[in-house]
UniProtKB/TrEMBL annotation, chains A, B:
Acts as a magnesium transporter. It comes from Pirellulimonas nuda. Residues 136-198, 202-258 form the CBS domain. Belongs to the SLC41A transporter family. Signal peptide: none annotated. CDD domains: CBS_pair_Mg_transporter (cd04606). This is Magnesium transporter MgtE. It is found in: Cell membrane; Membrane.
Length: 467, 467
C-alpha cells in the first residue's frame, strides 16, 4: 500500500520549486519515513525532492529507496550528480547498487569517483556474492594501540560521520592486524578516566570472520554473540572491514526466504517475486518441476507392474490419492522439522539415531491415527458393496475384510514417510549437500513411489488371504 | 558437537577449588565462549565455575547458557545465591527464565528480590507471549529534557553498566512521556560542544511500538529502519522499555521457523525439535494430518463418481499420481512465492491482479513444458499398446490419440495449481487469516481434487472423440 499522505504537497512544492520546503521535509522525518512517503513519486520526482536536501541527508534517504528507483535515479540524472550521490553512500551499498546499474553508465561514473573509493569498490567486487567480503563495509573505525580514552574519543568524534558505526572500534597495529576491540560503551563508562590507555580496556579475544566465509556463518555468529557488528579479516588476520547488525537482519531474511523457496523447488531469486522477470521465474521453477516430473514417472512403472492387484480389485484406485497424500504429508512434516532444527543449530548429523527413534514413534502414532480414520472410511465404503450390482460395469466395492488393506497401508506409509523425511535431510547434510534440497517435493516424490509399492504389496497379500 | 577443549582443566580446577584460575577463565574470554566451553559440564559443575567469577561476568555468562541448564542451576543452588543471579540478569531474560522455573522455587525466590525488581517482573508477565511487552527490557537509559551534552554523557556513564544498551538514550518529560531520542553517536559527535542542550540535537520523530503490538511487527519496524533498539510505549505514549537488536534477531529466527512449520502443517512448538515431548509433537502434527486426511477423502468420491471413464480406459490410473503431483508441485511453488513475498512486505492483498496475471503466464509456461514431456511419455506407453494382448487380463494401453488426454490434463492442472497457489494465500490474508495456513499441504489438497476432476473430465470428452 503506497502512503499518499504527502504526495500532493510534495508535487506542489516541486512545481513551485520550493527548495526550502523540500529541504525541511527531508530534514524533519527519519530518512526511512521520507523514503516511504515518496513511494508514490516517479524516480525523477524523487530526485527533485532529495536534491533539495543536504548531501548527508540525501544519501541517507536515497539508501532507503527501493532498489529499482535507486538504479533509475543513477541512470537518469547527470553523471556528476550521480557520482556525488554514489560516493556519499556506504561502501557496501555502493557496490550493491552499481552492480545493478547499466554497465555503460558505470563506466562513465567510475572515472569521476575519487581514486580511493574506486579502488575500494573494485576490492569489494572481487568477493563472490553471498560471502562476508561482499557484505562488508570498509568504513570502519580503526584506532592505534597507543591511544588513551580521551584521545580515542576525540578520534572517533572527528570521524563519526564517515563511519558506518561508532559503537565498535577496532584496535589495529601498524600493519593493520586486528589486535582488539573497544566499544563506545566501554569508552563512555571510562569517560571520567580520560588518561587510561585503551589497551587496558580493550577486549583481546575478538570474534571475527574471514572475507571468504559464507554470509550464513556470519549471521550465525552475530546471532550467537549478540553483536552489533562483526569484523572481517583476511587470512593474515588484517582488518578489512565490518558487517553491521542491519545487514545481518537483511541476510537472515534473505536466507529464510531462500530456504522457503528451495523447500518447494524454486531456485534462489535475485529479486523479489514481482520484480523477477517472468522468464527467469519460469526457468527457476521449470527446472525443478521437470526433475520432479521425471522422478514421478516411476509411479507409472510402479502401478503398471502391479496390474494384477489392480485388476483383481479395481476399488483400490479409489484410495490411491488418499494413501499417497497421507505419506507425503507425514514426510514433509518430518523433513521440515529436521531441516529447521539443523538451520537453528539444534540438530547435528551425529544425532541421526535420536531422530530415527523419534520419527519411528511419530510414524507409529500418526500412522495409527490415520489408520483408524482410514478403516472407518473403508468400512463405510464397503457397506455399499452389497448394494451395487457388479454386472452393470460399476466398480466392485471391497468387503469388510478386504478393506483392512487401507489401514495397514496407511500405517506403513506414514511410518515410511516419517523415517524418510527425518533421515534423508541428515543424509544429505552428511554428504556435504544442502539438506534443503532433500525437502518437501523430493521427500513427497520418494514417499509417493514407496506408497504405491506398499499399497499394492499389502493389497496382493491381503486379497489372497481374503480370496 | 560439544567443545571438550577446556573440560579436563575446568574439572581439575573445580576439584582443586582453584577460585583464581576459574575467575581468570571467566574473565578472559567472551562470555558466549565461556558458556560454549562449559557445554559438556553438568549444571552443578557449571555453577561451580561461574560462582568464582565477578557478579557481572557471572550474570553475563549465565545468560549464554542453554535454557534447561539455567533453569536447573536456579532450582538447585541455594535460594539466596539463585536470587542474586536472577536479579543480576536483564529484566526481559529474568522474566523468561522464571516462567520456566518450578513454581515452588519461584515463590521462594520472589520475596528475596528487591521490591522494584519484583514489581517489574510482575509487570512484564502481564503481557502475553509474542507481544512487544513480553520482549522488552525495562532497563532503558532515560534522560530529562533539561540536560546538556556533557551532563547527558555523565549520566549515561554513571549508569552504563546497569542498562541493556547505552547507544540509544530516550528523552522523557517529568511524566515519562517519550519526547525524543539521542544516540551515543550524536553525543560523541558533539563531544567537543559540551554545553549544547540535548533538545537541540535530539530526534523528535521517534519510531516506537505499543507494548501490546505483535513481535512480528516489532521485527518488521527494526528491520526497516535499521535500528539497534526500538522503544516500547503505552497508549499514553509513556516510555515502558526497549527491545534490542539481539532480541529482534531471535524473534526473526523464531518466526522463520514457525512459518516453515506452519507451511507443512505443524503447529508452533514451544521448544526445539529434540526437546519437545513426543506426545506434544504427535498432537501438533496429528491435528493437521487429520484435517488434511478428511480433506483428501473427497478424492475417493471424486474418483468414484468418474468410474465410467475409469472403466472405459483403465490405463488412466497409470498417470493418476503423476498428474496429481505435477499440479501439487506447481501450486506449492506459487503459494510459497506469494507467502514469502507477503512476509517480506513486497506484496499486498491489493496486488492480486498482478499475481493473477503472473501466475496465469507461469501456469501456461510450466504447464506447457510438463505437457510436452507428458505427451512424450504417453506416446512411449502407447507404443506398447499394440504389443499387449488385452484378453489376458492386462491393462489395455492407450492409442496415440487417446494419449493426448495426458498433456491436455497436465496443462490444465498446472494452470489450476499456479492460480490456486497464487491467489488462495492472498484471499486468506484479505479475510484477516494467517496466509501461511493456506500453504503447501492445503493448496496441494485442493489441487489434488481439482486434478482428478480435470483429468477425468478431459478423459471423458477425449475418449468420446477417440472412440
Amino acid at each position: 500500500m503506497i502512503n499518499t499522505l504527502y504526495l500532493p504537497e510534495l508535487r506542489e512544492m516541486l512545481v513551485d520549486n520550493d527548495q526550502e520546503g523540500l529541504r525541511d521535509f527531508c530534514a524533519v522525518l527519519h530518512p526511512a519515513r521520507v523514503a516511504e512517503f515518496m513511494e508514490g513519486l516517479s524516480a525523477e520526482e524523487t530526485w527533485g525532492v532529495i536534491n533539495a536536501a543536504d548531501p548527508d541527508k540525501r544519501a541517507e534517504i536515497f539508501g532507503y529507496l527501493a532498489d529499482e528507483k535507486q538504479v533509475r535515479i543513477v541512470e537518469t540524472t547527470g553523471r556528476a550528480e550521480a557520482t556525488q550521490l554514489v560516493v556519499d553512500l556506504p561502501a557496501d551499498d555502493r557496490a550493491d547498487l552499481l552492480s545493478d546499474v547499466d554497465e555503460q553508465v558505470v563506466e562513465e561514473i567510475l572515472p569521476l569517483m575519487p581514486q580511493e573509493d574506486r579502488r575500494e569498490l573494485l576490492r569489494i567486487w572481487e568477493y563472490p556474492e553471498g560471502s562476508a567480503g561482499a557484505l562488508m563495509t570498509t568504513e570502519v573505525a580503526r584506532l592505534s594501540e597507543s591511544l588513551t580514552v580521551r584521545e580515542a574519543m576525540e578520534t572517533i568524534c572527528r570521524k563519526a560521520t564517515s563511519h558506518e558505526t561508532v559503537y565498535y572500534n577496532y584496535i589495529v597495529d601498524s600493519e593493520d592486524h586486528l589486535r582488539g576491540l573497544i566499544s563506545a560503551r566501554q569508552l563512555i563508562t571510562h569517560f571520567l578516566e580520560p588518561d587510561k590507555p585503551i589497551t587496558d580496556l580493550m577486549q583481546r579475544d575478538v570474534v571475527s570472520v574471514l572475507a571468504t566465509d559464507d554470509q550464513e556463518l556470519v549471521a550465525e555468529k552475530v546471532a550467537k554473540y549478540d553483536f552489533i557488528a562483526i569484523p572481517v579479516v583476511d587470512h593474515q588476520h588484517r582488518l578489512l572491514g565490518i558487517i553491521t547488525h542491519d545487514d545481518i537482519i537483511d541476510v537472515m531474511r534473505e536466507e529464510a526466504t531462500e530456504d522457503a523457496h528451495l523447500s518447494v523447488g524454486v531456485g534462489p531469486l535475485d529479486q523479489g517475486y514481482l520484480e523477477t522477470h517472468w522468464y527467469a521465474l519460469a526457468w527457476k521453477r521449470g527446472v525443478w518441476l521437470t526433475v520432479l516430473f521425471f522422478g514421478a514417472l516411476l509411479t507409472i512403472f510402479a502401478l503398471h507392474s502391479y496390474e494384477t492387484s489392480l485388476n483383481a480389485a479395481p476399488w483400490l484406485v479409489l484410495f490411491l490419492p488418499l494413501v499417497i497424500s497421507s505419506g507425503g504429508n507425514t514426510g514433509n512434516q518430518s523433513a521440515t522439522l529436521v531441516i529447521t532444527a539443523m538451520t537453528n543449530g539444534e540438530l547435528k548429523v551425529t544425532d541421526w539415531l535420536r531422530v530415527m527413534r523419534r520419527e519411528l514413534v511419530m510414524g507409529l502414532c500418526l500412522g495409527g491415527l490415520l489408520a483408524m480414520f482410514g478403516y472407518l472410511c473403508a468400512l463405510i465404503v464397503s457397506h455399499f458393496s452389497g448394494l451395487v450390482d457388479p454386472i452393470d460395469g460399476g466398480i466392485v466395492l471391497p468387503t469388510a475384510l478386504e478393506a483392512t488393506v487401507v489401514p495397514i497401508t496407511l500405517l506403513c506409509v506414514a511410518l515410511c514417510g516419517a523415517l524418510c523425511g527425518g533421515l534423508l535431510p541428515l543424509l544429505f547434510k552428511g554428504m556435504g549437500l544442502d539438506p534443503a534440497l532433500m525437502s518437501n517435493p523430493f521427500v513427497a516424490g520418494i514417499v509417493d513411489i514407496a506408497g504405491i509399492v506398499i499399497y499394492m504389496t499389502v493389497a496382493l497379500s491381503m486379497l489372497q488371504v481374503a480370496g
